[in-house]
Amino acid sequence: MVIITPFVRMLYMLFVDGHLTTVNVLASLVVAGMAIFYMKVFDKYVSNQTLSMILSEIFIVATSLFFAPFIPHVVIYSIFNQPTNWIIRATVAIITILITRKVYFQVTNLQNKNIQLQKEVIFDKLTGFFNYKKFEQDILLGPDKQTNTGIAVIDLDYFKNVNDTYGHEAGNKVLQEFSLFLRERLAYKLNSKDLGIYRYGGEEFVWMFDPNNFSDIGKFLKSMQLELSKLPLGDQNHLMSFSAGVSFSKNYKFNLKMTFDIADDLVYQSKKTGRGKIVIEG
User: In angstroms, what CA-CA distances link 100 with 2, 91, 95?
Assistant: First the structure.
């Protein structure tokens, strides 16, 4: 709005009023530039977003009123040129602020709703990790990364027993607490803010990581297993374990889907031979 307004004014003065001058153009651009300057300064130095917006609005309106004699304001131009009509100026200023605020908060509200919808599309509500749709996009159907990437498939052992014995609500509680356990131990090993952890199935998770961050990935996962074995989960204080299979994309021409398939086979082997094991290729 700040950028478009001066050009709308100039178009009006050029095609309707017929008196567009260099002074009009310069004044319009100065007002737009000052408006952008005010918004950036207040946004940077005023932490409260609403207060920042109000201060920006006041300064923008004040600057517009100051330059009013050089920028014909369509219908109210002749009114603004009357030196005694400050009440009218103040009224127009207040109306401008109210309209601007309403538009601003409507746009902000729509942006927040859009961000929330985007999160719901790619995040699993129960665990907070990426969902299967995002897993498909990044690993099954996504482009291959030309750097070595590790993929670990982590499966919570005997989770079905919890569901069958105590019900799905108790199972969900265990999953949520196990997810928090994974987040706390794996998040600091990831460079981006978005965790590279996906909920692949009911109690199965996929972790995509950079092998360069670990001197011994097996030792790291075993230390996690030891911690989990002492950590009660859920309302019934279940002591759980997990099985894991790990593979590396450098062994499959950096193809992430093939890397995942191998890791998935390895975790299946782990569970088949007693569970609570970590199987790393090679």
Answer: 10, 14, 8
H, E, C per residue of 51-108 = HHHHHHHHHHHHHHHHCHHHCCCHHHHHHHCCCCCHHHHHHHHHHHHHHHHHHHHHHH
Q: Are 63 and 31 in contact (CB under 8 A)?
A: yes
List Cα–Cα distances, 10 to 24, 31, 69, in angstroms.
7, 13, 14
Residues 38-48: tens digit of each pLDDT: 888 888 888 77
Evaluate if residue 79 carries a pLDDT over 50. no
DSSP result, 10-45? HHHIIIII----HHHHHHHHHHHHHHHHHHHHHHHH
CB 51 within 8 A of CB 101: no
Whole-angstrom distance, CA of residue 71 vs CA of residue 236: 73
Residue 199: partners with Cβ closer than 8 Å, 6 or more residues away:
124, 126, 127, 129, 130, 131, 132, 135, 179, 205
pLDDT digits (tens, 9 = 90+) for 161-190: 888 888 889 999 999 999 999 988 887 555
Strands 238-239 and 204-209: unpaired
**Among candidates 262, 221, 258, which has minimal Cα distance to 243?**
221
Question: How far apart are the C-alpha atoms of 195 and 179, rounded to whole Å?
Answer: 12
Average pLDDT, the chain: 80
